[in-house]
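Technical note accompanying the year-one report. For the benefit of new consortium partners, we illustrate the data format agreed upon in the data management plan: each record pairs a sequence with a structure-token string. No post-processing was applied to the example shown here.
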Amino acid sequence: MKGWIDDVGTWASSLRFSGFTVVVVVLVLAGIAIVSPSLSTFVQQRREIAELRESVRQSQEAVNEIDAERAKWKDPVYVRSQARDRLFYVMPGETQVNVIDDIVMPIESDEEPDPELSRIPTNWARNLSASFLSAGTTDAPPADAPTGADPAPTDPSTDPADPESPPAPAEETPQ
């Protein structure tokens, strides 16, 4: 590596510059130093001009859209249609009918239900009479107890609204 540096040093010392070459190199360096700020300003101004042209183009598009909208509003047919759609206005002699589609109908299935699964064997007359009998044979609440109050305080560990509480035991109903 030392030999390589010696070779470069030998080569550099073998170069001979005349006075004219030194003057030309100094003038070129001075020209670059003088022109470079102007050149960077020129490039910056060209960039700003391009940004401003884009801004003007976007503004012109917005103006064209607004002009088209204004031309629509000058058309009486368009104004009438907007009054009907937005404000629910009608012409004299017409009747306004508003249909509100707020009921979502369930999607119907193509499958036919199995009649064996759909049949529920119940006797509604027996259920009705059982309801009358159970309502008539219950004891009346005490007169001093409020009718809307819960008679027993609930245990927070068995709160039915709590999703983490254990499920209540199933009650058997007579049939």
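Partners are asked to follow this layout when depositing records. The chain has a mean pLDDT of 81.
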